[in-house]
Structures are given as C-alpha cells and as structure tokens.
Amino acid sequence: MAESWVNSAERIGADLYVELSGPGGRRAALIRALRDAVRGGRLAPGTRLPPYRSLAADLGMARNTVADAYAELVAEGWLTARQGSGTRVATPLDQWGNSAPRGAAARVPKKAPAPPRGPRHDLRQGTPDASSFPRSAWLASYRRALQQAPTEAFGPGDPAGRRELREALAEYLTRTRGVRADPERIVICSGFAHALRLLFPRVLRGPLAVESYCLGFHRELLAAASVRTVPLALDEDGAQVGELDRERAVLLTPAHQFPTGGPLHPARRAAVVDWARARGGLVLEDDYDGEFRYDRRPVGALQGLDPERVVHIGSVSKSLSPALRLGWMVLPQRYVDAVLAAKGEREAWASTLDQLTLADFVASGSYDRHVRRMRQRYRTRRDLLVAALAERAPHIEVTGIAAGLHAVLRLPPGTERSAVKAATWQGVALDGLAEFRHPRATMSVPDGLVVGYATPSEHAYGAALEALCEALPPG
User: Fold this and answer.
1) pLDDT of residue 16
2) What span, in angstroms and rounded, lies between the C-alpha atoms of 261 and 408?
3) Which of 185, 161, 181 is nearest to 354 (CA)?
4) Strands (E), 136-254
5) Degrees (nearest 5) of the Cα angle 25, 26, 30?
6) Splitting the chain (475 residues) into consecutive groups of 10 residues, what average pLDDT does each group show?
C-alpha cells in the first residue's frame, strides 16, 4: 500500500525544506521533492547536498533509501556525484554540443533566450562617468580621515554635519564659487532632493516659482509636500524673473539653466535679488553644473550678492558620484535653526565617515585636481559630440554647451517624439526636451533632445555617438 506524507515538511541541510507526499513510498516522495526543489530554483546548480547518512538521520529514513534516491537522480542527470566533492545539483547543459539531463528537458529551452532589449548607450543627463571616480585618491583620504577621526566621530552625528567638512566647504565655496559662507551657515544634507525635503513644508511654504523647464522629479517632490509651483518663462537670458508676483520663493539654476543651458543674465541676477529684498522673498540657488565650464568665464554663485536672501545648494553627485549622497546648504542665518530642527537631533542621512573623507579630499586639494581633470575630459567629449554632429547631421543645432554635462540638440518642428523613439531602437537612452516642461507652462521651446555626454565610459563613447547620429531626423 502506497504511503503518503501529506503536509509534512522535512528539513534538508541547513535551510531547505521539502514536502514528502504522494504515492510510491518515502523513496519516491524524496525523489519527487528533490526534483521539485531543483526545478523551482530552491536548489541552485552547484549546491552541495548533505551526505546521504546525514539526510537519512534528518528525515528518519534508512540510509539505503536515501542513497538509492540520490543514485536515481544522478542517473537522470538532476545531481552529480564525484569522489571528494560530494553530491551536488547538476548544472543544466545547453544545446551547443551537449544534451540536456534526462528528466530536465522541460527546464532547458531548445533555443537560447534572446537577451532583454534595453539601452546599450546611456546618453541621459545628470550622471558623471562612473569609471572616472578617483578611487585611489578617495581611498587615501578615507584612510587619513579614519586614522585622524576623534573618538566622538563614531557616536551620534551632528545634524549640521561634521565641522571638518563644513570648514572645508566654506573655504572651497568661497574660493571657487564666490559664496559668502562660514561653517555656521552650512548644513550638510544627502543631496539637492534632500535639501528640498528639509526646506518644504516645515521651514518654507509655497507657492514656489520654478523655471518652465526643470527636473520633473523636483516638481513631484514639492507637490507631495503640498507646495504649489508656478512656472517662469525662459529665454536666451534665462528665467524671466520679472514675472515674479506673489510667490514667496523662487528656485533657479543660475549658473547653467537646466536643461536648456546658459547662465542667468547679470541684469536678471541683480533683479531677482532686488525682488527678494523688496518682497521679503527667498531665492533657492541650485548650483547645477557650476564647476564644469568650458568656453566662458566662471559665473559666480548668486548667493554672493546677498547671503541673507539666497540659499545656495550644491552636492557632489555630478563632480564625484551620486553614490556618495553628500550635499550642502549655505543658509541665511535666520533659517539655520529651523532647518536643523527639521533634520532632527541626530544625523540620519549622510555618513559621518563619508563626510570626514570628503573634508580631507577637499582640504588636501584632491577635489580641485579631480574637477580640473574631469573638466578637460568632459570638454573633450563635448567637442567630439559637436564634431560628430557637424559631420553626420549638420542641420542639427547644438546649444547649451558652454558648461555642464549635457547638450541640447535642436530638432526640426514635430520630430522630437519620433527622434526619441528612433534613439530607443538604436539602443540609445536619452530624453526629449518636452519631458522637462512644467505642465502649466505657457511657453514652449522648439523640439529638441537633451544629450548627456558624461555617463558613457571612454571606450563606449564613440559607439554611443554613432548610434545617436543614426537616430537623428534627416535634414
């Protein structure tokens, strides 16, 4: 009479359970259970099974019963047994010269599955070349920071951020960006998005004026905080700040407007500060791409015009890596305590060790050297992009290339959507300009593509440009 062990779970090894159930006795039930475990992926190829003596003791079976079950599964190709290596789950064989294991035909496809279709070339904006991260210099700074860190650095973190980093940033931002900063005004955060979350809605309230073309992610973040955003029109001189009305604050990218490119005109820089003074308003300065400039003189930070009316926000997401999750706010003095209260009593976002490492990286001059090196590398990439377009698509105008990590390709009217689709077919990931348009914007710019030239590695960049040119509409 066939035995049945319905609903009984027996343990195999350390972490695997099998169901011993059905007709045919315990040997047959064990064989079925092991087959099911392999077929379902709970026993991966190469997994070593327990010795048959141990398994027999675990399951309360005769040793010969388990040994016979192993032997049958080896014969069928489910398991392998070698002297000194034990019994292991067999690796499925493919169709190139070897037959599949017996009993496993249903598990091994007759044809190799096609690789998933996805982008081969990443020309999206916003990320640096990950292969260029200065590993050796960062490791040297990490070691120095770890050796020199005081004992209290390994306790709960200060929500303002490590003093060492705030002092290093105050010196660096004053020297390179014209920011009027001191360590007491700086609050460390994990990036620009984190800065917005700290400011809204506990410290600031809407409505907030934003540029008509900007990152949709930031708009969504603000909407989630019940902050209404009001779009400002753009032209060749940047945001039309004369449109500011009853808004309490305005968010700008004055060093390099994202995504259209170009700095905010000096007259408008002065005008927006005058507006803030007259109306008791506040300017949030996203220092987007402020360190990467190629064909123009440096554009100083807007905050330098009035530290009490401008919040300067920056990060290392593009200069070093978004993986570091380190940024900063240089705040008007009256907002420091409110931001620290919003952040909490302890640092919960930015790693203390990363902060100490960045402090050493900046103070030692390694950050300056890295930025200069990457500025030259990205300029070369930009020049290669411009040259490729001049040769392959001379009818395409390239704009916004004096600074930053992306360019805007102006397209013939009505071709943006088809160009994005064609790029997808060529395996190129990029964005159309329309993706960044505020849903309530009354103005629109011509069709275009936002092409980031920083992300691909050096060896892949040429192929990425070739695929991009293949996707562009004909002249």
Assistant:
1) 52
2) 8
3) 161
4) 186-189, 208-211, 229-232, 234-235, 238-239, 249-252
5) 125
6) 40 54 78 84 83 80 82 82 78 47 43 56 91 96 96 92 97 94 96 95 92 90 92 94 91 92 93 95 90 81 96 95 96 97 88 97 96 94 95 94 93 94 93 93 89 90 93 88
Q: Report the candidate in 371, 360, 363 with the shortest Cα–Cα distance to residue 132.
A: 371
Task: Give the tokens for residue 129.
Answer: 């070349």
Count of other CB atoms within 10 angstroms of residue 43 = 23
Instruction: Give the bridge partners for 312, in sequence order.
Output: 285, 330
**What is the C-alpha separation between 455 and 435, in angstroms, rounded?**
19
Q: Could you report the per-residue pLDDT of 447-458, keeping only the tens digit for each?
A: 999 999 999 888
Closest CA to 67 of 92, 87, 44, 95: 87
Q: What is the pTM of this model?
A: 0.75
Residue 449 carries which DSSP code?
Answer: E
Residue 8: other Cβ atoms inside 10 A: 11
Q: What φ, ψ does residue 186 adopt, rounded to 5°?
A: -95, 130
- Cα 335 to its chain centre, rounded Å, is 29
E-only strand ranges, 198-281: 208-211, 229-232, 234-235, 238-239, 249-252
Dist. CA 398–CA 428, nearest whole Å: 18
Residue 201 to residues 222, 253, 348, Cα–Cα distance (Å): 9, 21, 19
Count the neighbouring beta carbons within 10 Å of the beta carbon of residue 297: 7
Query: Hey, CA dihedral for 426, 429, 433, 439, is it positive or negative?
Result: positive
Paired sense of beta strands 406-410 and 448-452, if any? antiparallel
Return d(Cα 292, Cα 300) in angstroms, integer. Answer: 12
Residue environment code for 205-226, b if the CB has 16+ CB neighbours within 10 A, otherwise e = ebbbbbbbbbbeebbebbeebe
Identify whether the C-beta of residue 377 lies closer than 8 Å to the C-beta of residue 152. no
Q: What ranges make up the beta strands (E) of 39-185?
A: 79-82, 86-89, 121-122
Residues 208, 230 contacting (CB under 8 angstroms): yes
Half-sphere exposure of 100 (CA within 13 A, CB side): 14
The closest alpha carbon to 473, from 399, 407, 394, belongs to: 394
Three-class secondary structure of residue 110 per DSSP: coil
Residue 388 CA, chain-centre distance (Å), reads 28
DSSP string for 281-334: -EEEEE-TTTT-BSSSPPPPPGGGG-TTTEEEEEESTTTT-GGG--EEEE--HH
Structure tokens at 68: 């016979």
